[in-house]
Amino acid sequence: MKDTVIKIAPSILSADFSKMGDEVMDLEKKGADIIHVDVMDGVFVQNITFGMKMVKDIRKVTSLPLDVHLMIVEPWKYVEKFAEAGADIITVHYEACKERLEETLKLIKRTGKKCGFVINPDTPVEPVQNLVSMCDMVLVMSVFPGKGGQKFIPEVLPKVEKFRKIIDEQGLDVDLEIDGGVNFDNASLIKRSGANVLVAGNTVFTADDRALAISRLKNL
User: Fold this and answer.
1) Going residue by residue through the chain (220 aa), what tens digit of pLDDT does each one get?
2) Which is catalytic among the residues 33, 38, 136, 175?
3) Whole-prediction pTM value?
4) In 48-201, alpha helices (H)
5) Can you name the residues that pair with 41 across neighbouring β-strands?
6) Are 36 and 10 in contact (CB under 8 A)?
7) CA-based angle 162:167:172, to the nearest 5?
8) What are phi and psi of 90, to 5 degrees?
9) Which of 12, 18, 80, 118 has a C-alpha 20 to 30 A away from that of 59?
10) Bridge partners of residue 35, in order along the sequence
């Protein structure tokens, strides 16, 4: 892995929804690099979170990139709406659009936004490896999507290593993100595997000092 800047992307799934604007502004002030926005529809995953309006509203209060992770069925139907709402990066699940993933990535690109795909912990690298070069971000789930606070699944790390090898061998400018159960105990191992963007929800939001938590995750 080349010298790569480590970025911390707190997930607002763990925020207090009653004061989301304040929570997002606090994250920016405390040193977050990206705001990770988990959109869940109650169909692709069991949980329901929020939609375009939340993205539009938090766009007003932060200059940080909004990393919108669509955990929804038929994501191509909503790409343009999330782009219009203010997303900077839109990622879609391979499992939600297996036959239309390439088409959906191209659609995201046409909106002028960065694109990426996501794979679940039990999905192998091989079905998507030829699409890495199309992406600005590849996201490997280290928990099964649908809720926060789950335990990290270390068995996904070899997949992170495979993606890192593809990115480096092809000289691609692609962020490699990991999401789920990231904490102080596993952050170093995750980074050694090749990820450079760490999504962290509970680890940041439950910390007594969020700035310190973000700094520790970045520098461990």
Assistant:
1) 455 789 999 999 999 999 999 999 999 999 999 999 999 999 999 999 999 999 999 999 999 999 999 999 999 999 999 999 999 999 999 999 999 999 999 999 999 999 999 999 999 999 999 999 999 999 999 999 987 678 999 999 999 999 999 999 999 999 999 999 999 999 999 999 999 999 999 999 999 999 999 999 999 8
2) 38
3) 0.96
4) 52-59, 79-85, 101-110, 157-169, 187-193
5) 48
6) yes
7) 170
8) -125, 120
9) 118
10) 66
Of the residues 41, 67, 136, 179, only one is catalytic, namely 179
- What whole-number distance in Å separates Cα of residue 15 and Cα of residue 36? 11
Residue type, 59: R
How many DSSP H helices and E strands does the chain contain? 8, 8
Q: Which amino acid is at 92?
A: V
Strand order in the sheet with 137-141: 7-10, 197-200, 175-179, 137-141, 114-119, 89-93, 66-71, 35-40
Residue 179 among the catalytic residues: yes
CB 176 within 8 A of CB 195: yes
Fill in the DSSP letter of residue 71.
Answer: E
How far from the centroid of its chain's Cα atoms is residue 113's Cα? 15
Residue-level length of the chain: 220
Does the annotation mark 16 as catalytic?
Answer: no
